[in-house]
Automatic annotation (TrEMBL):
The chain crosses the membrane at residues 12-34. This is Fatty acid hydroxylase domain-containing protein. It comes from Richelia sinica FACHB-800. Keywords: Membrane, Transmembrane, Transmembrane helix.
């Protein structure tokens, strides 16, 4: 589980390194808010329930409660609607493009080596 958490943080840390030049305070604030986001979303594992008033406020402000997020981990279509189906086509297109690019770069490198 620890490895999963570390690997999940790697993309955020890579972006933080790239953006540090523009705003180190913004990067630190973003990482802190990201950590609060993780704590808020995963309190269901501890058995915590969102109080009714907070749940109502979250509904009003379109904020996902930990219960909704946990449902996403269990059954993705119930947790956030059909968002994963919505993003499936762009993700598949992106993967095809990356595979094409990898194949193209490999064939270019092989052509250079053989000449």
């Amino acid at each position: 589980m620890l490895l999963d958490g570390i690997l999940g943080a790697v993309p955020y840390l890579a972006v933080a390194v790239c953006l540090w030049h523009f705003s180190n305070i913004g990067v630190i604030a973003g990482l802190i808010l990201g950590q609060f986001h993780v704590w808020w979303r995963h309190t269901m594992v501890l058995g915590w329930e969102t109080p009714t008033v907070v749940r109502w406020l979250c509904l009003l402000l379109f904020i996902t409660t930990p219960e909704q997020h946990w449902l996403h981990h269990q059954k993705t279509n119930l947790g956030f609607g059909d968002i994963f189906t919505f993003f499936e086509l762009p993700a598949r297109t992106w993967m095809r493009w990356l595979r094409f690019l990898r194949f193209h770069l490999r064939s270019c490198a092989e052509t250079r080596v053989s000449t």
